[in-house]
Amino acid sequence: MSRRAVITGVGVVAPGGIGTKAYWKLLSEGRTATRNITHFDASPYRSRMAGEADFDPVREGLTPQEIRRLDRAAQFAVVAGREAMSDSGIEFDQLDPGRIGVSLGTAVGCTTSLEREFIVGSDRGKYWEVDASYAVPHLYDYFTPSSMATELAWTVGAEGPVSVVSTGCTSGLDSVGYAAELIMEGSADVVVTGGTEAPLSPITVVCFDVIRASSTRNDDPTTACRPFDKTRDGLVLGEGCAIIVLEELEHARARGAHIYGEVAGFASRCNAYHMTGLHPEGIEMSDAINIALKQARSDATDVGYINAHGSGTKQNDLHETAAFKRSLGAHAYKTPVSGFKSMIGHSLGAIGSLEIVGSLLAFEQDLIPPTANLHEQDPECDLDYTPLVAREKKVDTLLTVGSGFGGFQSAMVLKKVEGAGR
Amino acid sequence: MTRAVVTGIGIASPNGLGPTAYWRATLHGEAAIRPITRFDSANYWAKIAGEVPGFEAGRHLQGRLLPQTDHMTRLTLVGTDWALRGAGVQPNDIPDTDIAVITAATAGGYEFGQRELQKLWHQGPEYVSAYQSFAWFYAVNTGQISIRHGTRGPGAVVVSEQAGGIDSIGHARRQLRKGVQLALTGGMDSSLCPWAWVAHQASGCLSRNNNPKRAYLPFDRDASGYVAGEGGAIMVVETPESAAGRPGTRIYGEIVGYASTFDSKMPSREPGLKRAAELALRDAGMDASEIDVVFADAAGIPELDKAEAEAIKGIFGPYGVPVTAPKTMTGRLFAGGGSLDVASAILSIYWSAIPPTINVENPVPEYELDLVLNEARHGKIKAALVLGRGKGGFNSAMVVREYR
């Protein structure tokens, strides 16, 4: 009997609110949480907007020591991890810790802290030989992002396989795919997974500025990210975290758990094309979709909703629109598509997990969140992108995709599970 | 169950560039820990490292790649070329969607990153390289390998400090089981720039002894931490059927077992290394008595050495198996080190010899380890166990065996 991986708990830190409820409220109302950057003085930069989370670590229950020690992205992971644990109803301390794993996605790790420490140690870039006497004791934790997996593993008491998966902007999908593989192959019964990112610092903003990938609609930040709209002019950065408790199906059934859905298929592909560019034909993303559907034993016509990458760049919109048509054929035109980055920005390695969680909530509520800011659809993008207003629809099988620097293309098929409790 | 064999090995190590130079140097116990030349170490208390000498990227890579790559990516791309050439893989031998690229990283391209951070803060945002967005991040090597060789199969990057070098190979084997024919896998790390060095010093794990012969002494009563180095290994791992498609392909050995575990924060819980090794043996369907050598993690930190010695003794008994740590010649290479240890274990099997551990003069007697000191031990090696630990609690173990 083959093992299946199902989702039994979720936790979220996102722009627009902390916690799953606030997140769903934002998505289902189609509101946006992108704004002018407040985390630092962004005036020297080309793009000065982001989806910022109003995150107060003290109110979220972190100790002063944790707040000093942990990068903001790690703080997100701990807080969202606790929500996911409690939501799952699993008594983590009653499980065999050796059967609990962690797989955490992040694209740029603790960049914000690394940059802050660099500024101090180099006296704002004056010295190549960074002054070691200014180094904080936990600098090495910022140096390697696996420290964040350590923190989450400590939070849940994991002693099974633990790792960070870092594949740029598909990290949040790939980490969950990796977690599902650990469960299916039998290496763990419960894997706490997801993605976290707090990249809002000058170096990250500049990275996207210099390649002109980010939006310059600085005077209208709440509507700046406009996927599939012909007035789009680039992505808007974001931050956030979604943590997911993934559990082996029989393990979840045995304790009568509420099951959000099953990770029924997952595939990733390299495009072998360009570190930042996308080929307009979308062949590799389409390959990933086809393999994920096959693994899920689903036909293209079973797909009731597509959660798009929808980053807000023209090349992305054309790329994924082509991929959806290539894989789903005529059915692509009948399938609602929507993109959450229009509302919460692009939180790099976290966004894939945030999109999984938002999609699972769409399962629960029979409601598909919209693509915000979509007023004038680009005629080259001719699918149904669910503009502005959420749509009621019962969905049993959905597809979520991601695309990232390095050429990574990923696709995941989520399915409702029969007799899922609650 | 799908089998996974190693048919190509690319190595960049402080004591040898390329698998042949590396193995010759390693069997002879050639030390490569030296005073740092890559940056001025005058202001740092740690002044020695394992640097890969004589690596001229321009000799191996097209000029257009140089402005967009960090040193660690250049090492990775050259290592990958070596592995593919050794395996005799020609373009179009294998469908491009049947090749996976799975690498491990500990740091990103931090030398590149430091340069761009300095430009940003000292000169202004308009001076930052257009390549910064991807040159320094952890996923860069997988992306660059895929582009260079036109591979369009699965891609992944795992990060679990030194253990990640083993995890990447374990994940590559998983991809073979899911249906791809061949995987390019392993890791190379290099973070020999002042910014990264400050972080290494802050880790509390570097030795404060700057005598290259006395700095990194795992299992020795004078153990005082480790020395950091750069480099690693990239391997071609494929199914035997795929290798058979290229008649005459040399098979170095087979990856037969893998597991990873994590250490609890609670002191009452036993560290997970022994469990990782046991699970890897079980995965291989092998008994401890079938293992001819253990490539130790060899942290060089007394508490960690003791924990590892207890794990090895717990499985094999006192002096129950030869144990070695060729990383005493190179320093710890982080994700690159985990992969290089697997490559070394494979080469041990292929060449019937165990490379030595150097500089260790006074092994702690209570550890009761049969350390292979100073001289290589020659003789048939059928199977090896490789152990790796990553700072933060990561443990990984891999079993490799002769292919038959």
Automatic annotation (TrEMBL), chain A:
InterPro entries recorded: Beta-ketoacyl_synthase, Ketoacyl_synth_AS, Ketoacyl_synth_C, Ketoacyl_synth_N, PKS_Beta-ketoAc_synthase_dom, Thiolase-like
Occurrences of domain Ketosynthase family 3 (KS3) (ranges): 2-416
SMART domains per record: PKS_KS
Alphabetized Pfam families for the sequence: ketoacyl-synt, Ketoacyl-synt_C
PROSITE patterns: KS3_1, KS3_2
SUPFAM superfamilies in the record: Thiolase-like
Keywords: Transferase
Family per similarity comment: Belongs to the thiolase-like superfamily. Beta-ketoacyl-ACP synthases family.
The protein, known as: Actinorhodin polyketide putative beta-ketoacyl synthase 1
UniProtKB/TrEMBL annotation, chain B:
Keyword annotations: Acyltransferase, Transferase
Domain Ketosynthase family 3 (KS3): from-to ranges: 1-402
Organism: Lentzea pudingi
The protein, known as: Actinorhodin polyketide putative beta-ketoacyl synthase 2
Bilayer-spanning residue ranges: none
Similarity-based family: Belongs to the thiolase-like superfamily. Beta-ketoacyl-ACP synthases family.
Keyword Acetylation among record annotations: no
UniProt KW Ribonucleoprotein keyword: no
Pfam families: ketoacyl-synt (PF00109), Ketoacyl-synt_C (PF02801)
